[in-house]
Design a protein that fits this description.
The chain is built from 22 helices and 23 strands. The strands form 4 sheets. It has a 9-stranded mixed beta sheet, with helices on one face. A hairpin with a 5-residue loop joins β8 and β9.
Length: 635
């Protein structure tokens, strides 16, 4: 290796400096993961070479035998991890080792607390890769050359992890990358053949690339012979009976770059049907930090006939299952498949349908057999699953079975729609729901009064996406969804009155309508700019008034979401419903002068708007009217 004069000193990106500090100080208790991360990077580099060589076999140069090599030198106190994969050019070295290109990095780093235990947990979800080298090394040297470039285009990168690094041109005869770790004092435990072998077996036994170490004599001297340390067999191609839970877990950590075990997984080998494939799919225990980043990439690793083709392939799973990690290996696609060809290949829809079925089957089993584990899943990914009814029409009913909601009858718990239906009243034909900003606001809504009186359970939809969900899932198991705050509720089914009582109630309603007709007309005229109508309410028992939307109108929660997103929203004027049994409404009916009636009408409207979580257009006017009313009451 000959050093070129073209050498420059550069500074790390600010995010890299912060991450380096946290990695070194938060992950010290699990130092051995540095080797897993470096082997994982080396494996990715070899996979990329395999893929690029499909269209350009010359990239193999004169070395077609792909492998990862691990060496250590007790005298120099170094560990070297080498691969003959794709390698890097000078620009790629600076981009890959001096910066972090992940979307949402700054937001992620802002969540770190300084608590080593908590930060280690978060970093595990973020993935640290190459920078884990500095857990045990006080200096790291990288020597690399991209496949296809001449030997004089090698690059050497070096840093002590102190905020700066140097990059120089070097001569490197072989393609690929060597990572040389200069160990810190006190970390000599890794200058041991069996220690390194054990780490490889523990974390990387599943890789389908041979990991080689020099064979040593009984007295520790190196021989000229290399031997394979791992099984070097594609884990997903093995029968399930031949794979242990630990091997499944470590393979997940490799492909997901996650420090934690997966929540659950499913492994399938399908042969002899319309399409042949192997797949191993995982659900993470925690949501990745970039789950809600629009530009973040998600998807599966794609292999064709055991040959790695590409990473993060999104075509095989819909967006609402973007949290799924895993691999797909199939014979149904050509080796020269590209992302462009993937869009139109006839096998994609069949593979996608099969993989979605496997994931939904897994979720069904978990919900049925391991409800506590499913509750953990729902807490992390429930709002993503809620995107499903709109995105995946064919599986809408299956997704509905997986949904969970708080209800007026489940304190601190969530309920499936199936369980809600089991608890429905014998005469109840609809699934009732209310949308609100939070559970307390939903429970205290005036719209629930008649339902509470008749012990009718109502779904409390408090997540931003919920109203959108029921808009795309209009019914479940033949039972339509009905907002308690929309339309003219047909309450006969829930009040369970006998024929005589029903007749008496209808008579009372008719008499009240006649008695209050004049008042309702006056209030409608007073509030004509804010409402479409005023009517007597059958849903109120203790509140004086509430606002009701048209059956097909947007709810107030959805209106606020669309406005916040900058979308133009045509606001639908609500209907003001008034409770004829309430003292305030009776007082208005008994006779108020026009000025007082106007003041009271506006107050009732504003109160109803606040009760549904809305914002007053003129808060100062509301306060002024309320104060004026109080002064009149206490004269």
């Amino acid at each position: 290796m000959t050093l070129d004069a073209h050498q420059e000193k550069l500074s790390f990106q600010a995010e890299v400096k912060q991450l380096l500090h946290i990695v070194v100080h938060s992950l010290y208790s699990n130092k051995e993961i540095f080797l897993r991360e470096l082997i994982s990077n080396a494996s990715d580099a070899i996979d990329k070479l395999r893929f690029e060589a499909l269209s350009d076999p010359a990239l193999f140069e004169s070395d077609p035998n792909l492998a990862i090599r691990i060496q250590f030198d007790t005298t120099a106190r170094t560990i070297t991890v080498s691969d003959n994969g794709i390698g890097m050019s000078r620009d790629e070295v600076v981009d890959n080792l001096g910066t972090i290109a992940k979307s949402g990095t700054r937001e992620f780093l802002s969540k770190l607390t300084g608590d080593q235990k908590k930060d280690a947990h978060l970093i595990g979800q973020f993935g640290v890769g190459f920078y884990s080298s500095f857990i045990i090394a006080d200096k790291v040297t990288v020597v690399t050359r991209r496949a296809g470039l001449l030997s004089e285009h090698g690059v050497m990168w070096e840093s002590k992890g102190d905020g700066e690094y140097t990059v120089a041109n070097v001569k490197k005869d072989s393609r690929g990358t060597d990572v040389i770790l200069h160990l810190k004092e006190g970390d000599d435990e890794f200058l041991n053949e069996w220690r390194l072998r054990n780490v490889v077996t523990k974390y990387s036994d599943h890789l389908n690339i041979p990991i080689l170490m020099v064979k040593r004599t009984d007295d520790g001297k190196e021989t000229a012979e290399w031997e394979t340390v791992n099984r070097a067999t594609a884990l997903w191609s093995l029968p399930k009976s031949a794979v242990t839970d630990e091997q499944y877990k470590e393979f997940y950590k490799h492909i997901a770059h996650d420090f934690e075990d997966p929540l659950i997984w499913t492994h399938h080998k399908i042969e002899g049907g319309n399409i042949d494939y192997n797949t191993l799919l995982y659900l993470p225990a925690h949501a990745p930090f970039d789950l809600w980043q629009r530009e973040a990439q998600h998807g599966l690793k794609l292999y064709v006939q055991r040959v790695f083709i590409m990473d993060q392939v999104e075509q095989f799973l819909p967006h609402y299952l973007r949290f799924v990690r895993g691999v797909l290996d199939t014979t149904a696609l050509p080796l020269n498949i590209s992302r462009e060809i993937l869009q139109d290949h006839p096998s994609i829809s069949k593979l996608r349908s099969a993989l979605v079925r496997h994931v939904l089957d897994l979720l069904d089993r978990m919900a049925k057999d391991e409800p506590e584990k499913y509750a953990t899943f729902w807490k992390e990914f429930g709002n993503v699953i809620k995107e499903g009814p709109a995105e995946d029409f064919a599986n809408r009913e299956r997704i509905g079975k997986l949904l969970r909601f708080a209800t007026s009858h489940t304190e601190g718990q969530t309920s499936s729609l199936d369980d809600y239906i089991k608890r429905m009243k014998p005469t109840q034909k609809k699934i009732y729901f209310i949308t609100a900003d939070n559970v307390n606001a939903a429970k205290s809504s005036p719209h629930l009064e008649i339902f509470r009186k008749n012990d009718i359970e109502v779904l409390l939809l408090t997540d931003r996406i919920d109203e959108w969900v029921v808009g795309h899932l209009p019914e479940y198991e033949g039972k339509p969804f009905q907002s308690v705050a929309k339309g003219d509720l047909q309450l006969d089914e829930i009040t369970a009155e006998d024929a005589e009582a029903k007749k008496e109630e209808e008579k009372k309603d008719h008499e009240q309508q006649q008695a209050f007709d004049g008042l309702l007309k006056k209030i409608k005229d007073i509030l004509k700019d804010q409402i479409t109508d005023v009517r007597l309410s059958h849903r109120l028992t203790t509140s004086p008034a509430c606002l009701v939307r048209g059956q097909n109108d947007l709810g107030p929660q959805m209106e606020r979401i669309l406005k916040a997103a900058g979308q133009a929203v045509t606001e639908a004027k609500p209907i003001l419903e008034m409770n004829p049994e309430h003292t305030l409404v009776k007082k208005m009916h008994d006779g108020l002068d026009d000025a007082k009636l106007s003041e009271w009408s506006h107050i009732l409207f504003d109160q109803a708007l606040l009760a549904e979580g809305g914002s007053l257009s003129d808060p100062a006017a509301f306060v002024h009217r309320l104060n004026k009313l109080w002064l009149e009451l206490y004269k």
